[in-house]
């Protein structure tokens, strides 16, 4: 009789631990969602202080221009400049696509957002850690894609299926004066076309 009782106690303990873990995960997931809601509220209010309030002091932030800001003060200043200048009329809607807990206190989050009035899409990756009971961003990277009304549901402009013989794809800054053939143009992020160029 002892053996079945030990198994029963073991199963009861395992179930209790699993239930507690699930409850903790749900609580942490909601805390992460609340923090990201604060970030995007700050974006739409053009409030850099509110945005970086969810960042760790030593956070890394890589934007769509491949500019790497290191530390909260540098991120704050960059966001202030963006929202005082080219981003002053921007408004984002967003969807949290995935939250993955690497460890109980480390999570990776993918977010898809749409900016208006530019009709630009963003795919962002946030790495967050739980520090003193609070989830903070320790690393952020962002890519932008141009919405393609003729494309499939992803909204991502496709790269040409093939490059002309003897050619190569080069990324050049927009406005550089190149004449682009439509079927050789691949718009990335709405501001950098890549062009098939013959050697």
Provide an overview of this structure:
This protein has about 200 residues and is α+β, with helices and mostly antiparallel strands. The chain folds into 2 domains: about 25-145, Roll (Nuclear Transport Factor 2, Chain: A), CATH 3.10.450; about 165-199, no CATH class. It has 3 helices and 9 strands, in the order H-H-E-E-H-E-E-E-E-E-E-E. The strands form 2 sheets. Strands 2-1-6-5-4-3 form a 6-stranded mixed beta sheet. A hairpin with a 5-residue loop joins strand 1 and strand 2. The longest helix has about 45 residues, at about 1-45.
CATH class of the largest domain: Alpha Beta
Specify the structural class: alpha+beta
Q: What general form does the structure show?
A: elongated
Q: Report the average pLDDT across residues.
A: 75
The name CATH uses for the topology of the largest domain is Nuclear Transport Factor 2, Chain: A
Strand-residue proportion: 35-45%
Secondary-structure element pattern, one letter each: HHEEHEEEEEEE
pLDDT < 50 runs, ≥5 residues: 151-160, 163-199
Number of domains: 2
Amount of helix: 25-40%
How many strands, which pairing sense, and closed or not: the largest β-sheet? 6 strands, mixed
Number of strands: 9
Rg from alpha-carbon coordinates: 23 Å
Termini Cα gap: 83 Å
Please tally the helical runs, counting DSSP H or I stretches of 4 or more residues: 3
CATH architectural designation of the largest domain: Roll
For the biggest β-sheet, the strand order reads 2-1-6-5-4-3
